[in-house]
# Entry
Amino acid sequence: MDMISNRIETLGFEKRFLENIDPVDLNKFDIARVMAVHKDSYIINNGKNDVFAELIGKMVFSADSSIDYPAVGDWVLATFFDKNTFSIIHNILPRKSLLKRKTPGKKIAFQLIAANIDVAFIVQSMDADFNLRRLERYLVMVKESNIKPVVLLSKSDLIDAEGIANRVAEIHGIMPLLDVKPFSNENESGLNKIKALLVPGQTYCLLGSSGVGKTTLLNNLIGESVFTTKTVREKDSKGRHATTSRQLITLDCKAMVIDTPGMRELGNFSVEIGIDEIFSEIIELSKQCQFNDCNHANEKGCAVIEAVKKGQVSEKRYQNYIKMKKESAYYEMSYLEKKQKDKQFGKLCKTVMKHKRNRENK
Ligand SMILES: Nc1nc2c(ncn2[C@@H]2O[C@H](COP(=O)(O)OP(=O)(O)OP(=O)(O)O)[C@@H](O)[C@H]2O)c(=O)[nH]1
Ligand SMILES: [Mg+2]
Ligand SMILES: [Zn+2]
# Structure
């Protein structure tokens, strides 16, 4: 067990993952990490090698939603067969973080991005893609998921030093303590500063719009062009993602990285912790609003609106805050509605069954 635990520690395993696990299960199963997900099959690693895996039927039958399925980065209990060439996943260990987004549409459904991530590299390119509002959305998602954000500004080769400094200053204007690293995959400037952030055994993920250079960065960190990036010709063809699968890569320095496909839509937000953290100055101001339940929309004595009028909070930032708040409120509402509907449907079933029984008994 100890030898195995040493081996999985290099994959980022921590004792805390075992906190609520039955010791009997630990004797029965191996601990392994999900390295890649492909439809309904998986590649997992128990510290020895990558092994093909499937879910035990019980897990599939009892799954309520996508959250009950393994994501890249998950720790699982599994059994290994045929000299370590095939495995069955029995259980997912409690996650320390889970990056997910709501799938488009009104239905409450999530797409899992990755589990047990320590640091999220939010990548924006400094040319066309640079957008503070989008950055705020990514930051909210990352904070909400209990993950440390670092902002990587790519394509520094395309703008001058002043342009770079301005963009960094703009970000620090809204988040003074945020780690922001400009870099270029093209001339490799700033790459060493990114490498210096990588800690062995920690798991990182690359987030950001399509075409900002996430996969190119990963290839640079590996030191080899292992993964496909967009060719120059394809660069303009919007909507085509170079990266489509998700997998966990172990770098030579023993840090692990998950590359993700660019997300076109970030989806709505389920809870408000993230929003409150990223818009902390607005939360601070709202304590001075005349009404406790102020929505900062058009209420009398609203300190937030006052600050926007005075130019202390930018109009755009305020609008983004209101927009995200609305989305999150909408989300909560539709969730409740869904539950309500489920209840009504359950009642309906019961009544139908009762009538049926009554008829049969007659
Ligand atoms: N000038 C310049 N071009 C870059 C830089 N980084 C990436 N590129 C180019 O940008 C294009 C897109 O890069 P990718 O690494 O495929 O982008 P991605 O973020 O992985 O995109 P998706 O996988 O679609 O999400 C490629 O043509 C790269 O050569 C950079 O720092 N400077
Ligand atoms: Mg990519
Ligand atoms: Zn207010």
